[in-house]
């Protein structure tokens, strides 16, 4: 089964930070994949902009190397060369005047203009100001900004105010690649497109929900950034918060950007403050041939967490009494992202104690192997009485849709195409970002005020022992972290 490709209108896309890691690994290979799929119009232009002095030929060669290294797109002979003809480059001083007129000369009239800020947040304001002052952007232009969207509530408000000086909220696309994953969008389809689930999607039938984002890698070359951020700012405040909102939100009146984001905002505002005994922070220790977190960040006294687990409660009619357990960390057993909706036991078992305890669990896998499974209790085949087992109804996309990789586009591909379409459904709104920080800040301030020290944990495991106790105290267990 091959996904239906709907071409977008012609566009000019400028990538600030066009020689950076994100552009080389994700943005440029993703655009080439969309080009091969026939979604990018032949006349579209992709313009890299960065400080480096580089010829167009040198930049195109860099793009070619990036696609060959990070792209996995089968393509016809000549497609890559044809794509590269649409790629241009200009050296631009983001905080000065050099290069802007040359960049403007590449842009066409009566064509969608999009500007991707693949740079640090400190440059957002300077670039936004010059796009307006130099006449590169108009009322129909769009800007894409990468996280982090601030470091706390005050900085997020300042960043939003800076962007708002030059662009309307309808022109600002705050990108979170988790929302571009096929499974995340399928979560909405499963909930709101099937009568089977939505009537059960509440505290009457759901015992609890677990959201896990686990990584096997450490902080790597991001040590200096990460030690000022930590798992709470880097993952919980944005990625996990977005997943929580999509799981918990009320059905929007229609599948419309503001209608969806209004419901997500209501979830964030309904979150209770988190009590200290409902949180666990961890920091990976050395293990095997691998050095520990403090060595990686070159700070032997670091109190920054590389792991967070917490119990979260939502004070509204739908979820009162149903806990949400969030967990994320580095150097864990496997790389996986999963949402598990654990339904309550049947009110009465007719099969007796020997049948054991069985529960329906809807597991939504974001990575690896995007898909969903629903654990259903059935009779174990064979003679010998009524023995019950749980078996999964598997909805793995690779199996259901066939081996054609085009069926599941990369998250960045989908989101960039949504920018060109002008569809903000999968992008965060300014008030949503600020509400998330307003909930997160008191948690971080509490850690600092108490002088909390993260619990050390062995790499390659499930995290600190205290995180297991977080659920054990409630008579529950974390789902196993496995690939």
SS-derived structural category: alpha/beta
> Distance between termini?
25 Å
Largest sheet: 9 strands, mixed
The CATH architecture of the largest domain comes to 2-Layer Sandwich
The number of helical runs is 15
Assigned CATH class of the largest domain = Alpha Beta
Q: How many DSSP-defined strands?
A: 15
Overall helicity: 25-40%
Per-chain topology:
Layout lengths: L10 E6 L4 H16 L8 E6 L5 H15 L8 H6 L2 E5 L8 H5 L7 E6 L6 H10 L8 E5 L6 H12 L7 E4 L6 H12 L12 E9 L8 H4 L3 H19 L8 H13 L9 E6 L8 H4 L10 E6 L11 E6 L6 E8 L17 E7 L3 E9 L8 E7 L2 H4 L10 H11 L8 H21 L4 E3 L7 H8 L11
Parallel strand pairs: 1-2, 1-4, 2-3, 4-5, 5-6, 7-10, 8-15
Antiparallel strand pairs: 7-11, 8-9, 9-10, 11-12, 12-13, 13-14
Pfam family, one: G6PD_N
Keywords: Carbohydrate metabolism, Glucose metabolism, NADP, Oxidoreductase
Enzyme class: oxidoreductase
Walk me through the structure.
With 483 residues, the protein is of the alpha/beta class. The chain has 2 domains: 11-146, Rossmann fold; 179-408 and 429-472, Dihydrodipicolinate Reductase, domain 2, CATH 3.30.360.10. The chain contains 15 helices and 15 strands. It has helices spanning 21-36, 56-70, 79-84, 100-104, 124-133, 153-164, 182-193, 223-226, 230-248, 257-269, 293-296, 397-400, 411-421, 430-450, 465-472, and strands at residues 11-16, 45-50, 87-91, 112-117, 142-146, 172-175, 206-214, 279-284, 307-312, 324-329, 336-343, 361-367, 371-379, 388-394, 455-457. The strands form 2 sheets. A 9-stranded mixed beta sheet has the order 14-13-12-11-7-10-9-8-15, with helices on both faces. Strands 3-2-1-4-5-6 form a 6-stranded parallel beta sheet, sandwiched between helices. Helix 6 (153-164) runs antiparallel to helix 14 (430-450). The longest helix has 21 residues, at 430-450. The mean pLDDT is 91.
